[in-house]
Amino acid sequence: MFSRILIANRGEIAVRIIRTARRLGIGTVAVYSDADADALHVKMADEAVHIGPPAVTESYLKASRIIKAAQETGAEAIHPGYGFLSENPDFVEAVERAGLVFIGPSAASIRAMGLKDAAKRLMEKAGVPVVPGYHGEAQDLVVLATKAREIGYPVLIKARAGGGGKGMRRVDHPDDFAEALAAARREAKSAFGDDRVLVEKYVARPRHIEVQVFGDAHGNVVHLFERDCSLQRRHQKVIEEAPAPGMSEAMRAAMTQAAVKAAKTISYRGAGTVEFIVDVSAGLKPDAFWFMEMNTRLQVEHPVTEMVTGLDLVEWQLRVAAGDPLPLKQEGITLSGHAFEARLYAEDPSRGFLPAIGTLDHLRFAEKAVGEAALRIDAGVREGDAIAPFYDPMIAKIIVRGRDRSAALSALGAALRQTEIAGSVTNAAFLARLTEHEGFAAGDVDTGLIERDIDALVAPAEMPRGAAELAALVASGLIERAASDDPWEAIAGYSHFNGLAYPVSLGREGKLDRLAITIYGPERFILSADGQTTPVRLRRNGRNLLLTGPGIFLNATAARTAGGVTIFADGASSHFPVPDPLESAETEALPGERLTAPMPGLVKQVRISAGDMVKKGQLLLILEAMKMEHTIAAPHDGMVETIVAEGEQVREGATLVRFAEEEARLP
Ligand code: ADP
To answer: pTM of this prediction?
Structure first.
């Protein structure tokens, strides 16, 4: 076995590989870009080597720099993780030329499966079922359109170099073929530098079922059962599970045999996944599945296989790369229970899943699964870490295993609803809703499920009544005193603060609410705003806050961060920005100076005009940045000379408001 390996990756997968290496007593070397200098994988590794600026082409894709880092640190092998250099045969060859071991398959195996058309031709020859289609060399419109007609519409045009669903176009009618072909080619050219395509039958009700395979250097190949990854959005996996719902023994035998045959055909070594598309218009049938492609690396979703087999796939990868035979024979690999994985991303489902960035000011995962289920969180970030714009915005993978599918699914839902993140929008609520989807719960899945119900799945969650009131109480800081576990403090808080009105400003739906909070008894407060008063009672149970009042019954948790307060209830979260007048006074303009944008963003709303007299603390404008609304308040009294226009996109440091000079001279 190796004594030291280098991990040519970042984020959760680098962390996950380090964990197994450590357990096996193998030293670890991390690599990092400028953006990752303080990243979790860097902190966890025994040693870390800086490899360049944030851009991946300058760092995580820089093969020569990574190989040099391995040589300098005495690493004997390189684990590529997934993505980046994991399926790059030139990298494998360079690693081997440098006298190091690549923890993965041979360059020849990667090449054989690298292009979808060649891989399909190879599989067809080996007798593995392949989606009916044209995988030949000819590329001109007339030939491809003729083939499409022969295959029968609808058809799917796919980039042969494709990945991540790019360069793929479904065509329903011959009239649309030429245009779709041109679009697929353009996309393929820009994404992969290769505009060649293949055309295949579009499977009407497809399920994506893949088989985990493993080979060693001694000619052994086994499978570790299947995973169902049918829950997809724009051809990208969202929730994966093992085993596939409704899988029959006959179907499983046919699929796993085909997968093992595929791996054997290319003398496969290491972890690999054979992806199949299954037509479920007539249920799962052993003659209705076809080879789609083989991923010659560890998959993002490998943990579901680990959960149901009890095996550590990274350990197997290391053993096989070190020349050992596979740790188990096929008969020794068993399946038990049911596992799910949900991919938690910094992205905004209500805006077309736009990737988000931000600093994870507050990050809390479920601590244990409900009932007897097991919970595993694979995260690459900690609280306080930033989701940078340079990389995939994945925050974590939430993985559960239950005794059966329904136990596992409810454990997944519970774990997602307990996830608390402030500082970035996430898809947590969307994922939690998916776990409640009737069709999904029934195991009636196909790749179109999410798209069909997308509106309901991404509709913004209604914040329960009382959320703003609770946020105001948290923002006031009073509850730390009044709801203290120490009765003396609570009472002292009461008598001491009784009658005093605490002003609190809270951003809410783009406006600034000004409230006054009065304590009128232990756990009892009155909130007043715009002449309206709301008496409430607030109790605390551990981290849970229970707020009751007229029409209010709210059980929630809260996070106080630099930018405001986030309330978490029923799996949804709501952020209330809290302007910090102290901070503005310190860091923002002095009288006569300018008020500048703290970060790049969009001027969402301007609440004043040039010539207005404003008071210190008054809301001037709302800046939308990093998917959140930030209120910009006046740092002092004064007259506004100029103000930025509503709708303008501003750079960090751009002038938002300029105050008049005369006013500046007033105290
Ligand atoms: P990529 O490499 O870009 O991810 P794949 O070939 O793996 O492309 O396909 C990605 C997804 O696209 C599949 O999981 C499936 O949902 C869908 N898909 C692929 N081929 C077909 C097909 N012939 N018919 C219907 N859907 C398909």
So the answer is: 0.86
